[in-house]
DNA sequence: GATGAATGAGGATTCATTCAT
DNA sequence: CATGAATGAATCCTCATTCAT
């Protein structure tokens, strides 16, 4: 798990003892476990501490308050998910548009599935901390990557405002993937879904 | 305010006297006012009762618990919004696709704006009660209407699975409208947004 | 059901309409039904009124408060039980002691069984109203009856203080019957129980 | 005060620090004091906390809910009473039946008097929590002790089923003692009461 | 570094009872 | 006689956070 609670640890002795990192991780993981099994309403600091096997006092040594624990959880998972997705997308940068889009959607579905809880379920059962950490972040992970990609294919494109196009596609793709995974489409296979959605994007984008 | 909390109020009394309906409405409206000004976290039953000018006992005479008040609010507004949108769409049923889609998106933006708080802001600051009342319901209000519309234009269409196509378009349109209204697109006018989004849909849909 | 809520009805028109008596009974019976099925904690005036099919307003026409409803229930059942028991005991007044006691215990068990709920269960789950209406009353129903009976058999008796003897026997008999019915004695038949208990009494009483 | 709420407190913390035990005791004692002076109906958690000189939060640190406080009180007192009685009875094990019974009844009266409130008054003014802690437990404390005692005197006894005999005597003795202390017998001294009640038992038991 | 006892403001909910219609 | 809307004091309980040890 990535380093969290930075402000606190920054001004403390550099080598965050391994023990400390272990404690820190176990707190965040306990929070995740409780969130998954009992829901946000049951997430209390005392409960987290108990599951993590530390005292509340200790918990408050590592985190200034409850929200920061959840934020640490989300940040960590979103960071991982983004990194994973970005690295996979890089492998596709050389592919033509008609190959890139279906592949990208497949990867997105795959990442959403892997981090389903934090990315898809959690946002639904908790009041937003600030502005949609998870969705926002994961939503636009593709943006910068794709902007570069599209710029390389300018000649093939029929759209003029690339930024607007990316905005529209980002929203269309992510919301459809989320809905597909969350509500499902009884009669439709994943293959059909990917084909049709990427078809929509490619037709929109190309001449 | 329209009659609300009817089926649900099996546990609580249904308004039999005129006085009752007035009280009931004022409770729901107070909840909405508090939600708008102070946010979900400040929505307490005592506060609602106070603003509504009734006793806390009266509040519980009409609603079994706090959640049901919010649910009544959402249901009422979503019902109104849907009805409004549906009636406007009916006027467009005779139009060709290239006219229908931009018009529809404009209407959707307009309805979202009118019911902005309950439809767009509220879902972001409260934990979901059961299934996403607002989004889900507003998301698919267009579905049945549009399915009929599209069936009349089958010959012009390039898509085969109409249900899948509607699923994709519903998500693409609603999520883009919501994001457009919520986050905005600094450089883009509403007209451009509507053009581009409807362009995406029409290109996808037609031969 | 016997007339209850006397104070109220005394100064009202004499002929308590049948309708009124029906309403009154249905209130008391509703209370009993709720008590049996949901327990004392669930006995609310609104609930009673609802089950009885009358408004709370009406309920408060017949009873000054909730306790009086329960009291009416208990009084009615205890009155019936006592009357029933007394009439059965009268038939035994001519019998010798060795016949009287077993017979009396059998009758007591039978009456307790018939009015089990109000006489045995109810006292256990509700705070006492005044001093143990039910137990007290049923406990001493035998007293006066038996005092007369014993006086007729003075010559056979070995006890001197008849009142004390009756006190001891009353308690011994009623508590044993209640415990026998309530907790049971796995290995013991009712016949053995009656034999042994009356044996204890008879031996104590006679020379 | 003896350690209480130990097994039960799985949900709540067990006192690890000395401070904790003191707090715990003061909560239970406050509950007892309120119960004695104001009655069960006035026993509120806030009141208990106030009298105990702790915050309401602390109270809930030690007990999961109000009932458990009362249960802890009852359990503690019943445990003490039983232990006390048992130890006194052991001193009588060598005595003949005609000495044992009056002595035992005297001891029982004495213990009942010492713990009068929890053992005699409290059960009458509160709804039962689960199964009658107090009565049941105190009722049968004598059972095992006495069974052994009687087995040593088999040759003197006229009864065959010892278990049944003990059941009958337990109920007869405890109910009479409770009634004697609770309702009283105006004309009768304790000595006469004890004599007569033990007389009943001895006559029943011996040849 | 760690502990866990203590805090207490605050919130949801209940229910006997009244009274205007 | 009947209705049922309205009352509101009162109660139980939660939980993030602090701080003395």
- Provide the helix percentage of chain A: over 70%
- Basic shape of chain A: elongated
Largest sheet of chain A at a glance? none
The level-1 CATH class of the largest domain in chain A: Mainly Alpha
Q: Identify the CATH architecture of the largest domain in chain A.
A: Orthogonal Bundle
How many beta-strand runs of chain A? 0
Q: In percent, how much strand structure appears in the residues of chain A?
A: under 5%
Counting H and I runs of at least 4 residues, what is the number of helices of chain A? 10
Q: Hey, which two chains have the biggest interface?
A: A-B, 32 and 32 residues
Mean pLDDT value of chain A: 84
Distance between the termini of chain A: 45 Å
The SS-based structural class of chain A is: mainly alpha
Key features?
mainly alpha, elongated, 10 helices, 207 residues, disordered N terminus, homotetramer, Tetracycline Repressor, domain 2, DNA-binding, Arc Repressor Mutant, subunit A
């Amino acid at each position: 798990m990535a380093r969290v609670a930075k402000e606190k640890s920054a001004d403390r002795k550099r080598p965050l003892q391994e023990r400390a990192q272990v404690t820190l991780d176990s707190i965040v993981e306990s929070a995740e476990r409780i969130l998954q099994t009992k829901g946000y309403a049951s997430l209390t600091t005392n409960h987290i501490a108990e599951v993590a096997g530390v005292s509340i006092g200790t918990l408050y040594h590592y985190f200034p308050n409850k929200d920061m624990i959840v934020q640490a959880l989300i940040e960590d998972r979103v960071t991982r998910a983004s990194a994973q997705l970005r690295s996979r997308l890089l492998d596709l940068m050389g592919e033509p548009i008609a190959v890139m889009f279906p592949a990208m959607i497949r990867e997105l579905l795959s990442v959403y599935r892997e981090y389903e809880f934090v990315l898809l379920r959690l946002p639904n059962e908790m009041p937003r901390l600030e502005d949609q950490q998870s969705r926002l972040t994961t939503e636009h992970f593709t943006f910068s990557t794709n902007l570069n990609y599209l710029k390389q294919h300018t000649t093939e494109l029929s759209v003029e405002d690339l930024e607007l196009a990316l905005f529209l596609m980002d929203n269309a793709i992510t919301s459809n993937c989320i809905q597909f995974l969350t509500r499902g489409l009884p009669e439709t296979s994943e293959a059909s879904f990917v084909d049709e959605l990427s078809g929509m994007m490619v037709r929109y984008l190309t001449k």
